[in-house]
Amino acid sequence: FYNLKLGPTAWNFGSGLEVDYNSNVNNTESNPEGDFIFRPQINTRMVWPVSEQNTINLALGAGYSAYVNNPNLDQLFITPNSGLSFDLYVGDFWINLHDRFSITENSYQDPTVAGTGNYSQFQNALGVATLWDLNKVIVRAGYDHVNYDSLSNGNGQNSGGQPSGYSEVFSTSAGYALKPGMLLGVELGGSLINYTATTTNTPYSNANQWNVGWYYDTPVSEYIHFTGHAGYTVYSPVTNGAATTIGDFDGIYADLEIRHRVNQYSEYTLSGGRTISIAFSGGTVDQYFVNWQANWRILRKVTLGTSFSYVNGTELSSGGETYQQYGPGISLSRSITAKLSGSLGYQVYWRDSDLPGRNYIVNVVSVSFNYAF
After folding, report:
1. According to a count of CB atoms within 10 Å of the terminal CB, is the N or C end of the chain lower?
2. What confidence score (pLDDT) does residue 261 get?
């Protein structure tokens, strides 16, 4: 799989170029401004087999977004699947040490954002994950120290932008194999959230979140697979600049997913649920979501992709916003040569809000080419 061997390491390289047209780069309701964005990108993967069972892996996708008419929005990006990991196998234990990092952009992909295109955040998760395989019982545990730093508005000091901060994230679960491939279990998790910059846009200085629930993972049939997580979560914020907590936000969380391979020509994934999490401004948001994505191989050498997403959210702070964001998408992808592939896509996002001036429509047309060396 590699095209470069350096000592004990094997490397694979690729490159890409994406050209987008965004009809509303600032996500505004009135006077939307369109722009073309050029995104050159490089990709690399490295595997270092330390022993027959233990390996070090590196994945990195990085590039630059250049706006034709809005150079103030130019920014670097690092794809979310980038990171360094070390897999260890010791007896019945699998241990993964990792450092995962990304620089996110595209403000329209965050439904809590409106009225700005200046959106860039660095996220880094350094931690460990462990799995203990006891045949019928599977025990998992994990810890991550997560940093998130705003790169677009003075490191969180702007009253209209993202706060910077860090979280300590803990998780554990235990599942029992009812039969081969069918796992039923309980899960417990927690997060200690701290904001390193206090802003007038951030209603809380820190928060704690805990959850307890169950999960179920099973093949329904040879071609259908179901995964479900559900339980109860409590989010306890602390008022910005105060030592006493304000009201907790609690409720049911859920994340349900069905993957179905209909036949050799089509397959789809349908997911939905509810989350209580951090909003763009640092507050708490209660979101219900549904996502559907399908691939259709009905044309020779061409894959047609279709999707639809829907989010209904409410910011839980005093005077918070209630909003909806939804929209369909379609894409065509094809292998041009043995090493070159291309794709054409279209996505639209509608956002409706109960607050004035926070509705918008965004249309995104994209053309991309990827080359594997």
Report:
1. N
2. 96
The one-character DSSP state at 68 is: S
> Nearest 5 degrees, angle CA 311-CA 317-CA 320?
55
Tell me which residue of 335, 328, 326, 373 sits closest to 353, measured CA to CA: 326
* SS3 at position 71: helix
pLDDT tens digits, 262-291: 999 999 999 999 998 766 566 678 999 999
Confidence of residue 157 (pLDDT cuts 50, 70, 90): very low
Q: How far apart are CA 250 and CA 286, in angstroms?
A: 10
Query: Does residue 159 have a pLDDT over 50?
Result: no
Q: Give the number of residues written for the chain.
A: 373
Specify whether the CB–CB gap between 312 and 324 falls below 8 A. Answer: yes
DSSP assignment of 309-365? EEEEEEE-STT--EEEEEEEEEEEEEE-SSSEEEEEEEEEEEEEESSTT--EEEEEE
Q: Centre a 10 Å sphere on the Cβ of residue 119 and count the other Cβ atoms it contains.
A: 23
> pTM for this one?
0.86
Beta strand 165-179 pairing with 302-315: unpaired
Decide the pairing of beta strands 322-335 and 284-299. unpaired
**Distance from chain centroid for Cα 148:** 13
Q: How many whole angstroms separate alpha carbon 114 and alpha carbon 75?
A: 19
Label residue 8 left, alpha or beta by phi (over 0 means left) and psi (-120 to 50 means alpha).
alpha
> Residue 28 carries which side chain, given as an amino acid letter?
T
> Tell me, what DSSP letter sits at residue 294?
E
State the virtual CA torsion across 49, 51, 53, 57 in degrees, nearest 10. -30
d(CA 364, CA 357): 21
Percentage of the chain with pLDDT > 90? 67
User: Could you give the C-alpha distances from 43 to 46, 60, 102, in angstroms and in order?
Assistant: 10, 6, 13
Under DSSP, the state recorded for 245 is B
Burial tier of 242 (Cβ tally within 10 Å: 0-12, 13-18, 19+): exposed
Q: Which two tokens stand for residue 35?
A: 């722009």
Which residues are within 8 A (CB) of 363 and not within 5 positions of it... i.e. 6 or more apart? 21, 22, 23, 24, 346, 347, 348
